[in-house]
Amino acid sequence: MSESPNSFDLNGTEAPPPSPSGPDNRGFILVASILVGVFLIAALGMAAYVLGVVLPKNRAQSTQAAQINFANTATVSALTQAATLAVKSPTPVPPTVTLTSTVTITQKPTFTPVIAIATSTQAPLMENTLDPRTATVSALLTQAAEAKQTGTSLATATGLPKTGFAEDVGFPSLLGLAVLLIAVIFLVRRLRASPSA
User: Fold this and answer.
1) Residues near 7 by beta carbon (within 8 Å), at least 6 away in sequence
2) How far is CA 78 from the centre of its chain?
3) Are 82 and 134 in contact (CB under 8 A)?
4) C-alpha span between 179 and 42 (Å, rounded)
5) Phi, psi of 138 (to 5 degrees)
6) DSSP codes, 12-43
7) Which of 42, 78, 147, 161 keeps 20 to 30 A from 177, CA to CA?
8) Is 78 buried (19+), middle (13-18) or exposed (0-12) by CB count in 10 A?
9) CA distance 24 to 195
10) Beta bridge partners of 8
11) Tens-digit pLDDT profile for the chain (197 aa)?
């Protein structure tokens, strides 16, 4: 008499179920281990990419930003000093008014109206005269500012800003992740379509 999986043995006890390490579970374990391996390889590749490309680029950008800030601070300091030297208030010269009037009466006084025109004998204020060294510094700072403006406008006109997810993670990582997900889709469909033994 042949026994079916649900048959009882002679003692009246139920037969044990088939072991979980049968042929169906081996395939699943194999596929799961392959997927874990591919995932680990992809994670290691992304970590190597981040450590080798992204972090050095960020360090270089922060160093460049620090250099630009240092140059801007030096320029502002020099311009402030030049403006301070140029704005020296000239010392006012006190007005010198000399009244000279000599009256000699030789004739009988007449009542002729006298129109007085006020004239000032005040010395003209000294103009702001710059030291030749200050003038040279001012000219150099002006040239530096013009060169900086043209350089900045060219730099912003040539490229787009580096923002978004693709710039943070990188195109190779996105491509690898897409290939991995497509492989998972085909593998799962194949496992579902395969007949179970």
Assistant:
1) 15
2) 25
3) yes
4) 11
5) -60, -45
6) SPBPPPPPTTSHHHHHHHHHHHHHHHHHHHHH
7) 161
8) middle
9) 10
10) 14
11) 444 555 555 565 666 665 555 556 788 888 899 999 999 999 999 999 999 888 888 888 889 988 999 999 999 888 888 888 776 655 566 666 666 666 565 666 667 676 767 666 655 555 556 677 777 888 888 888 877 776 544 445 556 677 777 777 788 888 888 999 999 999 999 888 887 65
Of 131, 143, 142, nearest to 86 (Cα)?
131
- The pair of structure tokens assigned to 38 is 């591919």
Per the structure block, which two tokens stand in for 99? 């009244």
Beta bridge partners of 14: 8
Residues in the chain, how many? 197
Using CA atoms, how far apart are residues 128 and 138, in angstroms rounded to an integer? 15
Contact indicator for 1, 9 with CB cutoff of 8 Å: no
C-alpha torsion 50→53→56→61, nearest 10: -110
For 134, residues 6+ apart whose C-beta sits below 8 A from its C-beta are: 82, 85, 86
Amino acid at 185: I
